[in-house]
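We treat protein structure as text, and this decision shapes the records that our systems exchange. We quote a single record here, exactly as it is kept in our systems:
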Amino acid sequence: MRTSNTFAILFWIHTSRAKNNQTRIYVRITVNGKRVNISLKYKVDVRNWDAKRQRAKGNSEIARALNQYLGQVHSQIVQHYQDLKFKGHLITVELIKAEYLGESDNSKTLQNLMEYHSQKTEKTLAIGTLRNFKVTQGYINKYLNNILNTTDVYLKELNYKFICDFANFLHCYWPKGHPKAMSNNTVMKHIQRFRKIATLGYHIEWIDRDPFVRWKPTYEKRERPYLTDNELSNIETYFLPIARLERVRDLFIFSCYTGIAYIDIMNLTNDNILKGIDGNDWIFTNRQKTKSPVKVPLLAKAQELIHKYQNHPMTLVTETLFPVITNEKVNLYLKEIAEACGLKKNLTFHMARHTFATTVTLSNGVPIETVSKLLGHSKIASTQVYARVVERKVSEDMQILRDKMNSSINKNPQTKQEL
């Protein structure tokens, strides 16, 4: 087995391809008898080339500059060879060439990684998620241009300071057309996406050390808005004279009683309604966002809405359970519905999922583990943001217990005296 490598560097020119006595200079790298040529993109007069010295003849300014450049190329190639030897890599001419031309993993840049991440995820992530990553990448580019005065950096330059400075840039940046600067949680979301890109680079070994190893995100706790029993009842029973508003209200109410997200409701067909383990109708589907399975028993209100649109002209065309309408229009019409009902909350379709988790399920004693399954959460931690409802239920249940105990004490004065 070979214990050492033979290594040589040769500068040469193509005299037979010279035009007007000008021809390109090449460097030939040889390792263990195998060689590769690299064009240096420089030309020299064949009459001024010393093949024995592998340098330009003469002492002119052009000759000195060219010879200095060739010396630098020689030093760089030798350095790449020594680095590979030090790391214990199997040294080949192709590997040395890649190192010199900046085509190896050690020469990858942040732009290379973002492009690779985009290609890798374009078929696996939801359209909205891809859009969010594009926005984050746009802010990364703004940071590179506005703060670092560059368009790209080597991945080895990603470190804790880079992350902190990028986060600070986002905190101070005021997006054009926005009424205010980014909130802390919005900044953390962008950093979270950046972290996923960097983690990919670490896993595919383009980055030697995870730059986020010491980074700790700081989220501000926010209340998840939801409708109370009275507010939900008000929207359910309010008469809406406009058909488009009624359709949107029905979609919203269906989500309130199933917890199914907008995009998943739009994709529902009769094939998604199957008999569950209890012999009743259930919705069987998969969340488009996470691909996780969702199995939801249909409550009476949800079944009523399905029957309502069974023979609707729009659903007959699309073969879906409900009329198809864009997310933008749904949320726009919900603003009209909220105003008509006198609701002061900022009504959005996603509030329906929050209402299902709080008002419809947790507040009525459904265990949080069950609610997590119904919502299609992959982790119960995602459902625990609604824990305040559980606490409220605990408080109400404990009050019932207190009342019972007080009633028992009042009925038995002897027990009261002993206490």
About this structure: The longest strand covers residues 34-45. The mean pLDDT is 88.
